[in-house]
Amino acid sequence: MIYVSHLLCDEDMKEICGQYGTGVESIEFSISDNLDRLERKMEQYQKRLEQMGNPPLTLHGPFLDLNPASFDSRIRKVTMERFDQCYQAGIRLGAKKIVYHSGMIPTVYFREGWAEQTGRFFQEFLKDREGPEIVMENVLDEDWRLLLDVYNFVDHPNFKLCLDMGHAHCYSEISVLEWAKELAPYVGHVHIHDNAGDRDSHLGLGKGTIPWEKVLKLLPCTKERTWTIECSNKEDVILCIKQINEKMRGKL
Questions:
Q1: CA–CA distance, 75 with 46 (Å, rounded to integer)
Q2: pLDDT value at position 249?
Q3: Is the CA virtual torsion 228, 234, 238, 243 positive or negative?
Q4: Rounded to whole angstroms, how far apart are CA atoms 58 and 94?
Q5: Distance between CA atoms of 63 and 174, rounded to whole angstroms?
Q6: Sign of CA dihedral 197, 202, 207, 212
Q7: Residue 238: which residues within 8 A CB-CB, separation 6 or more?
Q8: pLDDT tens digits, 166-204
């Protein structure tokens, strides 16, 4: 299943979802002001989804000023609260998956103990939850091994990884091909966009230097794996949909 990040206007999203059968990855509940008015925002977004034809939905969770890896009890508490608000929105709106950032900041955190601290957070967060699947996304992460360590520590059937190919390409010295190859069995969701390795520019596939065709071959189509196109340009989004469907032979 292909999703499109809700970076475009509702009319464009409706057109794309209708024409190509894609879903929507909403960023609405990653914004703290919206979480402060959660009930109202859920009602408003439900109406927007209806106007777009009720496409399949995933949510991108909140991340600004939050950190599941934090050793500060108060930061951890607020992070848990914000994550839970997004989770409740996911249940209400029927989201299939929710994407949360790992919170790794290489220049701040030591590698030792980070995976265990992050894993404990997600273990607690997932306790007694049977709703949307949780996928943890790499952002500034420099090494795929730490994400795999978190995955193994959490050890929960409803917890997977989200490989952001653009982030891996510009924030890690390890090849994005190695990221894809080594994490493929644990990746339930993929963020698709391109860049030249210098910054997180969210370009259409082929407009940067990511060997995207090889990356997709390493992440073959499965029943569980989903993809989100994260481009802010309508033309790039449509191009990516066509490219992915062609390379995956229309089986996404």
A1: 30
A2: 66
A3: negative
A4: 8
A5: 24
A6: positive
A7: 16, 20
A8: 999 999 999 999 999 999 999 999 999 999 999 999 999
Length of the chain: 252
Contact between 141 and 172 (Cβ < 8 Å): yes
* H or E element that contains 159: strand 159-164
pLDDT of residue 133: 97
DSSP state of 70: -
Tokens of 221: 């189509």
**Structural contact between residues 8 and 232, judged by C-beta atoms closer than 8 angstroms:** yes
Write down the mean pLDDT value for the chain: 95
Buried b (16+ CB within 10 A) or exposed e, 78-91: bbeebbebbbbbbe
Tokens 């024409």 — which residue?
19
Angle at 234 between CA 233 and CA 239, to 5 degrees: 100
The token pair at 159 is 């917890």
pTM: 0.95
pLDDT tens track for 125-169: 999 998 899 999 999 999 999 999 999 999 999 999 999 999 999
H-type alpha helices, 52-164: 73-93, 114-126, 144-154
CA distance 184 to 199: 24
CB atoms within 10 A of CB 225: 17
Instruction: For residues 29-45, give the mean pLDDT.
Output: 97
